[in-house]
Amino acid sequence: MRTERMEMRDSATRRAGPAPVPDVGMERFARLAASVMDVPVALVVLAEADRLALPGLVGLKEGRNALHGLPLSRSLCGRVTATGQPLIVTDVRDDARFAAQPPVAERRWGLVSYAGMPLTVSGRVLGVLCAAGPSARAWTDAQLADLADLAAACSAELRSRAAARSALMAQQHAERDHRVAERARAAAEQAGVRAQAGWDAAELLLRASQELAGAATLDDVQHLLRNLVGDPLKPVRTSLSLIQDGRLRPMPDTETEPVPPGGGPALSCALDENHPLAHAARERRLVSAADPGELAHAYGEDVAGAFALLDVRALVCVPLTHAGEVHGVLLIGWGEPHHAGPSERAVLTAIAGYVSQAVQRASVLDERVSVARQLQSAMLTDLPAAPGLDLAALYLAAAADDLVGGDWYDAFPLPGQTPAPSALTVAVGDITGHDMQAAAVMGQTRAMLRQAVLDHPGLGPAAAVTALQRACGVLSLNMSGTLLLGHLAPAARSGNWSFTWTNAGHPPPLLARPGAPAECLEEHGVLLFPGLDPGPRHDHQRFLEPGSVLLLYTDGLVDRPGTTIDEATAEVAAVLAASRDRPLPDLLNAVAAVAGDHPDDDIALLAIRVPHG
């Protein structure tokens, strides 16, 4: 008999995971894992009931039928899904953990070494991304970190699919309700004997089903709701209160005047209070009060007084329900006594149903964007200590909450075999797109670029970027965008540093030297694009004396309406030169202010200073 935990995982797998057949996205992650870990076998494994499925695999000659008839408990992948923890095995034959119950699957396939990372969605383990080989293998920390990064990106893809499926289901429900409303309207037209109020009600419901189905955010829901009921009902207050921690709390609303002192209790209350909002939620039905006297009689003078401060003297409260649960209340308030008749009550109840679906759909989309932004933020690691240099970075998200981009920055030490042990690699880039896919590809690109740098010691940045583009072509990773990669190392002259860089179509870095205007380092090559031959990439070099500041940035800083890129770049250069001696965090804030308070695109900034002395 399946446990509740297994049932919840299976449900999440059906929503998020691909079918147990070849899947383009999962196959790509398997190829990346095999390449990064340098092994012949890599798998994307999903757990379904008491068996495993293989939507993505590389190098397993038995193919997808290899798991047929094998229970979860008889494989290393099954152990990862059971514990939710990474499993690293150097040699399964000598590992005491498996002496009592050897892993049948891996032994049957002739696999000896194994490294598996769990794939999770909403806290539930759905499967494993693993790499394996036929001989004993001592995995390095760098390999395991790369595999963990790939597993995080694979989990993000699964979360994205789950959110997309949930949004699609919500949209289908809205479309179904729209068809119901259309049929109601057609019936009213055919009858031809209904009162004008009936026509108005059908029109209002149709508009509600159409307009609320397109709401993408909670702000959209409130704006559309206010426009829907404004003309036909003429309320003075329309608000939505959602249940949070046992209370009904009003949703923030930027379009209405602030709630006056003392008016808060009208829109917020505990679920067990004697309050119209609480009664509607507890009793799961519409409640109303036609005038202040009825409101005071039913709920007390304090509640009536709080509503009076909002100019509300009559009201209707309708519960918002979804999947059989109440999650909030819709409040419509009038400034004069108002009796809501049966027809109006029916219309408001139907509208509340559309509002409830729109709120749930917007919440799902908000959560999806939140997850993407968390993924994007997690990939922007802290800057390393850099002896002889000062570093600071700043990341600003676009003003539109539903935009997630591929902007990133990075800085990390070069390997010890370079001529200068204190040398540093710096990078800034922008992957094309504003969605979950862009954020995921950004993470893959950043990790692959790091590996390319570390795999080419003693060579310049152009060699690493060329290797990155070659790897993307081999792995069929459709990555496009721009990036700038540079090496910083102490120069022969005391106190000076050399900056060697290559530019793949990225905005030029700005260099502010003491006593001189900031200059653009214009040298650049072709951007990154699938199938585009960039030709040989070249390294360029400048020397930075003490007091110099180097600024790397993404195009969100200079690509904005109302000005050309050249004009905006010149403005940034002037601010950089004027702020050259300020603390780097203050300098970056001054530079970012050039883009305004509400930038249309994400902005990533990285500043490097060669200090005096």
How is this structure best described in words?
By secondary structure, the protein is α+β, with helices and mostly antiparallel strands. 40% of the residues lie in helices and 22% in strands. It is built from 15 helices and 21 strands. It has helices spanning 4-16, 24-37, 76-83, 104-108, 141-191, 196-213, 218-233, 276-283, 292-299, 301-309, 342-378, 436-454, 461-474, 565-578, 584-592; strands at residues 41-48, 51-58, 87-89, 113-121, 124-133, 237-244, 247-250, 269-270, 287-289, 314-322, 325-334, 390-396, 406-413, 424-431, 481-490, 497-504, 510-512, 519-520, 540-544, 549-553, 603-609. The strands form 4 sheets. A 6-stranded antiparallel β-sheet has the order 8-7-6-11-10-9, with helices on both faces. It has a 5-stranded antiparallel β-sheet with strand order 2-1-5-4-3, with helices on both faces. The longest helix has 51 residues, at 141-191. The chain is globular, with a radius of gyration of 30 Å. The model is unreliable at 12-20 and 191-199 (pLDDT under 50).
